[in-house]
Amino acid sequence: MATRGFVFLLLTAFSAAILSAFIISGHGSYKNNHLLHRSPPNSVKLDSDDKVWPELELNWRIMLATLIGFLGSAFGTVGGVGGGGIFVPMLTLIVGFDTKSAAALSKCMIMGASASSFWYNLRVPHPCREVPILDYDLALLFQPMLMLGITLGVALSVVFPYWLITVLIIILFLGTSSRSFFRAIEMWKEETILKKEMAKPRETFVNSRGELLIDTYEPLLPREEKTPTEIFAFNLRWKKLMLLVAVWAAFLVLQVIKNDLVVCSTWYWVLTVAQFPATLACVKPQLTGSGGGFILGPLLLEIGVIPQVASATATFVMMFSSSLSVVEFYLLKRFPIPYALYLMTVSILAGFWGQFFVRKLIVFLKRASLIVFILSAVIFASALTMGVIGIEKSIKMIHNHEFMGFLDFCSSQ
Questions:
Q1: Which of 236, 228, 274 is nearest to 255 (CA)?
Q2: Do 144 and 262 touch, CB atoms closer than 8 A?
Q3: 188 within some domain
Q4: Is residue 285 one of the residues assigned to a domain?
Q5: What separation in angstroms does the CA of 208 have from each of 202, 203, 216?
Q6: Range(s) of the domain holding residue 398
Q7: Does a structural domain hold residue 303?
Q8: How many domains does the chain have?
Q9: Low-confidence ranges of the chain (pLDDT < 70)
Q10: Fewer CB atoms near the end CB (10 Å): N or C, the chain?
Q11: What pTM value is reported for the model?
């Protein structure tokens, strides 16, 4: 019931925000406002498509960005949320990139961190079962839908007014972070009770009928210890991994072809619509089986996946979605290669060592709820940074009398 109420609250908030955008945009015409407030021919104004790429040199900005990027990647991959909500403000406010280039570089950082986390998790056994720590069935279920959502979201982000995107981000991030925080508190309390029970003297008892009662905390069959190589081979399922790669390649080909087509042409819509049956074809077989960023991690926890598996699976899926975006941005020449390589190196190291230290800490403290606390903190920090920047930019747009409604899809792409 709590999950249904939370989903209903988010949908209600989203609907109210979008409805208000229609009401606001209805008070004026886009074409008239656009022509009225267009910059004069002689004025010098930086267009939103202009690239602002600072030089890669050692200074306080790079050092501060490296520190924030390292911590954001470390905690983001542990929580299974990536950290894009921290990287984009960091790259725009501190380093000085334009928004689109910052978004592209953030995808490079997420790809590097998630790839190193995937490599690390291949050497980690499942905490309580004889199954891989990566849930491939859930990955096959969510990956096609996540990649479809990314492709549609990129197109709609140009149509939606900037202030509405900011409002939706704040609602979503605050909702998921608060939900995750309360879930972490519940898990912490349960772990405290369990630790107290485990600390009691372990004895064998006989009931009133003289039957032997076996201590339930001691397994009847002890788990067989595996070497790191055996754990790696056990976690790596080639058939399902290759299927995920095939889905990734199919989406990449569709996006590359669609980028070369005229927006709103016949073939453009054919390829756009073709993504839906292709996605359902990939998802449907997994529904018969056992089964991003800021949605996937909390969603996996919501459906009952334990934190360690949720974190590993979410970063695994993010590796595919972020790499798809990186390839697209590379073809569009949207980010400087030296910066991308440097930030990816930072993220790769952060992803590995973040997983290493937090996993060791969880084993030492016997509290998997730490992952959920980290997830909640990263999402909340992203809500603050993205919200502050979004509100500041929206206020500037209001002062400049810029159009605040929906844009035409075909002309705005």
A1: 274
A2: no
A3: yes
A4: no
A5: 19, 16, 18
A6: 58-136+161-198+292-412
A7: yes
A8: 1
A9: 1-3, 5-10, 13-14, 17-18, 20-50, 200-224, 278, 280-294, 411-413
A10: N
A11: 0.79
